Amino acid sequence: MGAKVGGGGDYNSDINVTPLVDIMLVVLIIFMVITPMLGAAVAVTLPKGKNPVEEKKINSDKAVIVSIPANNTWYVGKDEMKAASSDEKLIQLGKVVKDKIDKVAKTEDKVVYIKCTQDVQYQYLVMTIDAIRLNGMDRIGLVVDRDKEGAPAPAAGAK
After folding, report:
1. How many angstroms separate the CA atoms of 89 and 80, rounded?
2. What is the per-residue pLDDT for 158?
3. How far is CA 13 from CA 10, 16, 74, 85, in A?
4. What is the mean pLDDT of residues 103-123?
């Protein structure tokens, strides 16, 4: 496959695949970098439970998930609730959750799942539940992680 030298004027019918391979490699690298970022939600260290019931609906696109990764911080899906005070955030949270729940077609799918980090104060979890219930939603699920070691939970007050 040597190159012809000179102006022979013949047509070259060989296919040059080098540009195609270059473009495909760039697209592959872009997809490899972007794809892990698409599935990442708000990082929350879930508390451990001995026998949590595994709920398949949490991973669906229609699931409404409220995450509390830190005190006074709330996310609905990947959207952070931004406001001046925690009261305004909770009012906004209740409205956003209500709007998202109303978009779910079936009645049995209208469940709000709450993910809360272990380090968050209990009052923020209760405030979140209250804000959701004030907007007429009573089906609330608290998400925990399965205790893989099978060790008993620590006693109350133990660290």
Report:
1. 9
2. 39
3. 9, 9, 62, 70
4. 78
pTM over 0.85: no
Do the strands 145-146 and 79-80 form a parallel or antiparallel pair, or are they unpaired? unpaired
Is residue 27's pLDDT more than 90?
A: yes
Give the C-alpha separation, 103 to 158, whole Å. 43
Region of poorest pLDDT, from 17-26, 121-130, 136-145, 148-157:
148-157
Tell me 61's DSSP state: T
Residue 47's contacts (CB-CB under 8 Å, 6 or more residues apart) are: 116, 118, 144, 145
Domain that holds residue 113: 48-146
Strands 79-80 and 73-76, by their bridges, are antiparallel
64-70: strand order across its sheet: 79-80, 73-76, 64-70, 112-116, 140-143
Percent of the chain with pLDDT over 70: 70
Contact 153, 51 (CB under 8 A): no
Number of domains in the chain: 1
Both tokens of 125, joined, read 């979890």
Give a yes or no: residue 68 inside a domain: yes
Contact 112, 84 (CB under 8 A): no
Which has more confidence, 55 or 113?
A: 113
